[in-house]
Amino acid sequence: MLTLTDNAVEAIRDLMVGEDVPPDAGLRISPKADEAGTLEVSLASTPQAGDQVVEKEDVRVFVAEDAVPILDDKSLDAQPGKPGHPTFRLDRRT
Prior knowledge:
Layout: E1 3-4, H1 6-16, E2 26-31, E3 39-44, E4 52-56, E5 59-63, H2 68-71, E6 74-82, E7 85-92
Parallel strand pairs: 1-6, 2-5
Antiparallel strand pairs: 2-3, 4-5, 6-7
């Protein structure tokens, strides 16, 4: 299962500040439809059917069903950027 670093939790919190999303919203990771092998992230109000829900503290990440095998041994990390524009990266867990 995907894990979240403390930096990723902070970055996701920052993304949600000022957004009109419900309190149980989260970041959704899914394969990009038109680019094979590419993942995209977006804010989502609720998980879609089949999504795996990863929670840490008060942050939720929804992993699309077809992305679960890709992310199973990964950790989501983030580096701060401009406010509201962090850079996310996936690292293989050791």
